[in-house]
Design brief:
Elements lengths: L1 E3 L4 E5 L6 E5 L12 H5 L2 E3 L4 E5 L4 E8 L2 E9 L16 H4 L4
Antiparallel strand pairs: 1-2, 2-3, 4-5, 5-6, 6-7
Length: 102
């Protein structure tokens, strides 16, 4: 996945060819004036070849499947105590890589 500064969008690329596959809608993963690009990446994780999870700044986690047809939301979840234990930890490091499972 890459971020286009010009278009201000996240794009999924095909690994083998490097070509753009799909553009993530801002409703799934976007940034605003108070969020940096790496902070958005910190809240994203691939969980399979076609599946990923993303958590928003308030702790709402969404699981998506991506295909030629677009994005299909498979499930959603609320992460308990998302910003209450260590503060907004996703701003400094990848949430899914370092955070222990709850």
């Amino acid at each position: 996945m890459t971020y286009s500064k010009k278009l201000k969008t996240f794009n999924i690329k095909i690994t083998d060819t490097g070509k753009d596959f799909k553009q993530l809608p801002n409703e799934i993963l976007g940034i605003d004036e108070k969020t940096e690009v790496n902070q958005a990446f910190n809240r994203f994780k691939w969980v399979g070849n076609n599946n990923f999870i993303v958590v928003n700044e308030d702790g709402l986690e969404r699981h998506f499947e991506v295909s030629e047809a677009g994005f299909n939301e498979i499930a959603f979840n609320s992460r308990p105590l998302f910003n209450d234990i260590e503060g907004e930890e996703w701003r400094d490091w990848p949430y899914y890589a370092i955070r222990p499972n709850l």
